[in-house]
Amino acid sequence: MIDVIIYVIGTVILAMWLMIPAYISNPMAVVFGGGTPIDRGMKWTDGQRILGDGKTIRGLIGGTACGIVAGIMQIYIASYFASAFSILIIPTMTAVITLSFGALLGDLIKSFFKRRIGFVRGAELPLIDQLDFVAGAWLLTYIFDPVWFTENFISSPSIIVTVLVLTPILHRLTNIFGYSIKLKKEPW
Ligand code: CTP
Ligand code: MG
User: What is the pLDDT of residue 83?
Assistant: First the structure.
């Protein structure tokens, strides 16, 4: 029993650790967001905005930069404590960049499709709103660093399942917090 508990806790810690760049870049886009929208107000052929006012250049750049800084800190921490905490895997610089940027790219692509199906900016799309950034982060990392991604995600399905279960919960809690401090317009 005790080894099961240790295994579960270890898996949760590792899953969160591996996702840190994405877990930082996504909320930091909200913190830095505002100003010129990425689509610069342009409309798609359907008459709706391409992405909408919720996707801004400042959010994209600020969020990505924060995720990368967090990832670089992880590289140092994991390298320094490699012997003591072998559970902390060292992310590659490529993975740090693709997890941070991929997360916001996933969020952006989701917004594109949200506008196409007629959802206005901020309307809730359950589960997709919570996992879009995971999909983007994983896809970009798989494309640019397939070796690291396979080693740490594809070859450990328990990590994938943990991320998929944990992320919507963390996302919800973060957004309720962001809403309560008036950083976000909706609590989702
Ligand atoms: N944000 C931003 N730039 C991004 C992503 C997010 O500026 N690339 C900011 C915006 O202020 C946005 C807020 O973070 O309103 C919340 O992000 P999100 O929930 O992803 O956007 P929504 O406003 O809900 O828009 P959408 O319906 O397109 O998801
Ligand atoms: Mg939203």
Answer: 77
